[in-house]
Design brief:
Elements lengths: L16 H22 L16 H7 L2 H31 L5 H11 L1 H4 L2 H14 L6 H25 L3 H9 L4 H30 L2 H6 L7 H11 L3 H25 L5
Helix pairs in contact: 1-12, 2-12, 3-7, 3-9, 3-11, 7-9, 8-9, 9-12
Length: 267
């Protein structure tokens, strides 16, 4: 007679787990609430409350340097997102023609930027562009962001593709659909949630990147994370909290959208 394994053990049955869990959540999320709260500080110091005010938001939205850095980040992130999504879709559609071993090897190689330290990627990219005669600037920055964002887009799109019902393709093929028709009228529409969630994730990753950008920016191509770091070095004021809060809101919106789209995986 087989012995039944308990369905689940309650975490609270382990001593200290509850306290450790709460402490971890507080450590992770409380600083974010502090930053958001102090973005409404009326004083000139980031962490010294002197009354409620939105003047720092007004200052950020009228700061030419912040607007310029934000515009550059949006342009780089937009181009890198489109390029990485196109490449990710092309890879996902082509992987069926690879052998199992080839598909696994290709996936591991293409996903390498996720596990390779960013400082290594930054140094390697800078060395490479120097080797081929380029200098840090807009084009190397876009290329580096595309390479770094590609795995994040690929994971979402491939996960969506792996969850598709083969019956859709079999039925379409039985009705005489060509490979092109299968791709444009069946595969891509079904991949749409994965494409959108992958694009959102790639966009946020690009907007948030500091390490790689620090190696490849030049005069006129300063991104928002680089500019924020420069502000911190000069002295933290509530404008830094404002920018951080806006980026946090963008990340929350992307997380919610990605979660909703991923929840439709089996639809």
């Amino acid at each position: 007679m087989k012995h039944k394994v308990p369905y689940a053990l309650k975490l609270r049955s382990f001593p200290g787990v509850g306290i450790a869990g709460v402490a971890s959540l507080v450590f992770l999320y409380f600083p974010m609430f502090v930053v958001a709260a102090f973005s409404f500080n009326d004083g000139n110091r980031a962490l010294a409350w002197q009354g409620f005010s939105i003047r720092w938001y007004e200052r950020v939205f009228h700061d030419a340097a912040i607007i310029s850095a934000t515009r550059m980040s949006l342009i780089v992130a937009g181009i890198a997102t489109v390029a990485s999504v196109v490449l990710a879709v092309a890879y996902v559609l082509a992987m069926d023609r690879l052998s199992r071993a080839g598909s696994v090897l290709a996936g591991a190689i293409l996903a390498a930027p996720i596990v390779v330290p960013e400082v290594v990627l930054g140094i390697a990219t800078l060395s490479f562009i120097r080797l081929i005669g380029m200098t840090p600037g807009f084009l190397p920055l876009v290329l580096a962001h595309t390479a770094f964002c590609f795995p994040f887009a690929m994971m979402n799109i491939r996960a969506r593709y792996d969850g598709l019902n083969p019956a859709y393709f079999e039925s379409a093929a039985d009705l005489g659909a060509t490979r092109a028709a299968l791709t444009w009228k069946i595969t891509l529409p079904l991949l749409a949630p994965g494409i959108v969630s992958g694009a959102l994730l790639a966009f946020v990753v690009s907007m948030d990147d500091y390490m790689i950008s620090s190696f490849l920016t030049s005069a006129g191509t300063t991104t928002l994370p680089i500019y924020i770091f420069g502000l911190i070095r000069k002295g933290v004021n509530p404008s830094v909290n404002v920018v951080a809060t806006l980026l946090l809101l963008m990340a929350i919106a992307v997380t919610v959208a990605t979660t909703v789209l991923t929840g439709r995986k089996k639809s």
